[in-house]
Amino acid sequence: ESFGVQKALERLGVQSENLGTSTGNRWINSGKEFISSFSPADGALIGKVQVTDEESYEKVIAQAQDAFKVWRNMPAPQRGEIVRQIGNALRDVKADLGKLVSYEMGKSYQEGLGEVQEMIDICDFAVGLSRQLYGLTMHSERPGHRMYEQWHPLGVVGVISAFNFPVAVWSWNAMIAWVCGDVCIWKPSEKAPLSGVACQHIVAKIFKENGLPEGVSSLIVGDYKVGELMTTDKRVPLISATGSTRMGKIVGQAVAARLGRSLLELGGNNAIIISENADLEIAIRGALFGAVGTAGQRCTSTRRLIIHESVYETVKERLASAYGKLVIGNPLDEKNHVGPLIDKTAVEMYLQAIEKVKAEGGKVVVEGGVLSGEGYESGCYVRPCIIEAENHFEMVQEETFAPILYIMKYNTLEEAIAMHNGVPQGLSSAIMTLNMREAEAFLSAAGSDCGIANVNIGTSGAEIGGAFGGEKETGGGRESGSDSWKAYMRRQTNTINYSTALPLAQGIKFDI
Ligand code: NAD
């Protein structure tokens, strides 16, 4: 037993064989098919989860619709109180859940803990929000009339999540949706289903203790076929889907075909501009964590560095030297900086991307490759690499979900911003500069075209207080803080006549 994983699994209620379909405390047996979850850390089978079939999906939807009728009538601050209790339950299991996330997904234990902290933070945010679901009041043009708008819950929200943030992304959606009065059905990634099972156990207990019905929080498990049950289902008014742009294009169209709403959080191709006016100490550290943290498997990972020609050689050398000091190994061992990729398919994609970019003319600065031998038995550990490339290269235009960093030179800021924006994706971005004019130009309407734009911090590591999401092929959705909650509600405009007459709008006369 290594790093106390087995004990953590036991405490989280995760077994070697788990049902995957749940309306809360009720777990539905849904057939013979199972997904096996292997750890990329050591290649071991962690456990199996049963796949949801159509019949059990129908049971889940029916229960969710019933639960919505109760949940929507509970005052929002009382729903917030339930989310407050969930936040406390997450505080209690932070170490165990962080460990499971690290072991099942492969991110470092510190990042696993950070992911659970993000869940706790969004709970706190949602509790406050539950008293702040504000609408506006307007002045009516008619005498004796009052006008205002209010926000009502939508109904059943379908959450489809990616493997790389196996628990936090669900909580960004679910905690906000719950205080808004919606009920949620979550389909976690088929690459990290046990994290989903563990979370369902945690929240189901709280709903039960508070005497709430089954169906406010539901879980379904499987691959895209199970996801499609929700995306094509009219009973699910909002689909919030996180994953690749490829997935988003399919999901977006499926939901649009039934005129449903979708909230899409898709791939990024994030860059940092390092100006000649940068604090290079900060720039190098920001770029390093952005590029190799989570083994390059964050949607906000730094994939491109656009470096001023006057500091290009210095940045290149200092980065290469920092890469030389990286320790790669088991993510649960806190001595290691870089863990594994999610699976061998991801390793294959990483190797292919390196070959393709070399064929396009890319020059290797820090060599990549797959690690083998003791500690690397899972076959998922790779070396983070740096390649000199040009922005227009086909591979540079794509998001490869691995630690490959492309570096390139610029001369004028205008040129740097054009390169920066010259990719199909638009999630996160940063400029490293101490020059106020450069920083403001980057943040202006003519600057970064991304949903997130930073100055003197890297591209990864967003806080929950801001709205999270991106433009262009990143999908346009916003989650988490600010007014993202509005996506989970329907807006209603109300006009009340308290006069003794019935004036029509625009002064229209209609007398008989
Ligand atoms: P993926 O697209 O392979 O899968 C994501 C989820 O979508 C999974 O649950 C999968 O089962 C489901 N899915 C796939 N096709 C579907 C379909 N046709 N219908 C319904 N559901 C479907 O992505 P992944 O490999 O798990 O995650 C990596 C990707 O996620 C990267 O591109 C990354 O940038 C992106 N991501 C984006 C954000 C963001 O907030 N913008 C956050 C995390 C990850």
Automatic annotation (TrEMBL):
UniProtKB keywords: NAD, Oxidoreductase
Active-site residue numbers: E265
Domain Aldehyde dehydrogenase: 27-493
Pfam family, any one: Aldedh
CDD domains: ALDH_F7_AASADH
E.C. number: 1.2.1.3
SUPFAM superfamilies xref list: ALDH-like
Subunit structure: Homotetramer.
Family classification: Belongs to the aldehyde dehydrogenase family.
Name under which the protein is recorded: aldehyde dehydrogenase (NAD(+))
